[in-house]
Design a protein that fits this description.
It contains five helices and nine strands. The protein has helices at 14-65, 98-102, 123-131, 186-189, 318-325; strands at 72-73, 96-97, 161-164, 194-195, 198-199, 213-217, 247-248, 299-304, 309-313. A hairpin with a 2-residue loop joins strand 4 (194-195) and strand 5 (198-199). The longest helix has 52 residues, at 14-65.
């Protein structure tokens, strides 16, 4: 009887195994950037959708009230320091942020409870901003800030979306007329669609609604407070009507490395802050400004007063960026 030779089962050698592992590593290396690009594209689209909803809410508010919502309410503009009215005076205006006016137009039923007769950090208003996380506030590309104690009270949730506040600072939207172009519009020429106790009518946007910024993005900075700083880092506090919270200035270009000027930490490179901000006092609050920022590659999402949303690149000319912030300056923005 003839026996056939038995086949020998042969395993992988060490070299073959290392080659397979190397091939897999190369494939993963090629695949990860593609996956990240797809994820970032989805995140950017989500941000654009959030901006779209907020901007349409502004239009719905306009339909109901004949104008856009106030950018903020509460300060006495006749006071040299724009101080808030004392709560005991008949002229007192409840401190109200921009977002409070439009949240009921974004299909957020819980926000119907907002009480416009009291300040933003009182009663039900404080509970709404501290106890409910509204997903529409967050861009997935950024890291949401964790609420921290503010003045001994509950911290409020931050957001990634703010309003067009002109091209200079909180109090002066257009910049000094004797300043350096293009940052010398003056307040009348440089008025944005949103300001303190002011919301523009669509017919007043003479530069064209498709050429006038409505909202854009910024980063949710952590609730830190460097030594000597008068306030916590307020960037992203969409519930606080005060300066350096949700008011976006075109004084600096999108994602400008120069940094924002206000209550922020110059040592934190993840959230650019002008070194001159170190030790900022409360007296300088009205001079604060912050630029549009995002974690997207190469630019920020921005909505316009016609309801459209576009991606604005960091390379945009400053003169064009400034022109987009004014609503009736008679300027013609360049390509962007």
């Amino acid at each position: 009887m003839v026996r056939l030779p038995r086949s020998r089962r042969r395993g992988f050698t060490l070299i073959e195994l290392l080659v397979v592992i190397a091939i897999i590593a190369v494939l993963i290396g090629l695949l990860l950037p593609a996956v990240q690009k797809v994820r970032e594209a989805a995140n950017r689209m989500k941000c654009q959708n959030n901006l779209k909803q907020f901007t349409l809410a502004c239009h719905n508010y306009h339909d109901a009230n004949g104008r856009f919502p106030y950018g903020a309410q509460g300060r006495n503009l006749n006071d040299p320091n724009w101080a808030y009215y004392p709560v005991t005076t008949p002229q007192q205006l409840p401190r109200t942020p921009f977002i409070a006016y439009i949240m009921t137009y974004t299909e957020q039923p819980a926000f119907a409870q907002w009480d416009f007769t009291i300040n933003e950090r009182q009663g039900i208003n404080l509970k709404l901003q501290s106890g409910i996380k509204f997903p529409i506030f967050d861009c997935p590309s950024d890291t949401p800030a964790t609420p921290g104690p503010v003045g001994g009270a509950l911290g409020d949730y931050k957001a990634n979306y703010g309003v067009n506040w002109g091209s200079w600072n909180y109090r002066q939207q257009g910049g000094p007329t004797n300043g350096t172009p293009p940052l010398n519009y003056g307040d009348e020429k440089g008025r944005a669609p949103f300001f303190v106790q002011f919301g523009a009518k669509l017919e007043a946007i003479a530069d064209g609604t498709s050429s006038t910024l409505c909202m854009s993005e910024y980063l949710q900075s952590p609730y830190n407070q460097p030594p000597g700083q008068a306030q916590v880092d307020r960037r992203g506090r969409i519930f606080n009507d005060d300066s350096f919270c949700y008011q976006i200035s075109t004084r600096i270009k999108p994602n400008d490395p120069k940094g924002d000027y206000g209550y922020c930490d110059p040592s934190d490179a993840n959230y650019p802050c002008d070194p001159l901000s170190a030790g900022l006092t409360s007296a300088a609050a009205l001079d604060a400004y912050m630029g549009a920022r995002s974690r997207h590659t190469g630019g920020v999402n921005a909505s316009f007063c016609d309801g459209s949303v576009r991606f604005v690149r960091d390379s945009i000319e400053l003169a064009t960026w400034v022109a987009l912030s004014s609503m009736a300056a008679g300027d013609i923005p360049g390509d962007f």
